[in-house]
From TrEMBL:
Domain of life: Bacteria
Name of the molecule in the record: Molecular chaperone (Small heat shock protein)
Keyword Cell membrane assigned: no
Chain residue ranges for the region called Disordered: 141-161
Domain SHSP residue range list: 29-140
Keywords: Stress response
TM segment ranges: none
Entry keyword annotation includes Cell division: no
Ranges of Basic and acidic residues composition bias in the record: 149-161
Provenance organism: Modestobacter italicus (strain DSM 44449 / CECT 9708 / BC 501)
Family: Belongs to the small heat shock protein (HSP20) family.
Length: 161
């Protein structure tokens, strides 16, 4: 039999009691994952997000972009071990979904994703039109060069001083 030091003994005892009431033989059973932990940052011209998905089959990961919403779905299956007599089963399993609302300045057409060591990495480049750019200001040498131009809907005349 397996024993473990559980700092949340009261919670574990309550779960064991619930398991006994529901006919699960007194073992602690896994519960679905409550969330999909994420880190996100901008580096250079890319927005990068990392999602913890340990034990997830990469084939179950699905990413969809609709408008400015990125939806990430994945599934961690319950281990199927023949003739196993589970003593403790605390690792979470089930389906996971997380949605991110992306800024319009990101180029979702060039989104890239990879999965390594239980971490899904999503990289989205900043759209070219949203990148910072330098604007050149031309200099009018004489007031006559400005005369007659329309700026913000108003007609401006050169003022002689």
């Amino acid at each position: 039999m397996l024993t473990s030091n559980d700092p949340f003994a009261a919670t574990s005892a309550a779960l064991r009691a619930l398991d006994q009431l529901t006919g699960r033989g007194g073992t602690t059973t896994a519960r679905p994952l409550a969330g999909m932990p994420m880190d996100a940052y901008r580096v250079g011209d890319n927005f990068v997000a990392h999602f913890d998905l340990p034990g997830v089959d990469p084939g179950s990961i699905d990413l969809q972009v609709e408008g400015t919403t990125l939806t990430i779905s994945a599934e961690r299956s319950v281990p199927q071990i023949e003739n196993a007599q589970w003593q403790v089963a605390e690792r979470p399993f089930g389906s996971y979904t997380r949605q991110l609302v992306l800024g319009r300045s990101l180029d979702t057409e060039r989104l890239e994703a990879s999965y390594h060591d239980g971490v899904l990495t999503v990289s989205i480049p900043v759209a070219e039109k949203a990148k910072a750019r330098k604007i050149t200001v031309s200099r009018a040498d004489t007031p006559a060069q400005v005369e007659g131009r329309t700026i913000e809907g108003e007609q401006h005349q050169a003022v002689e001083g």
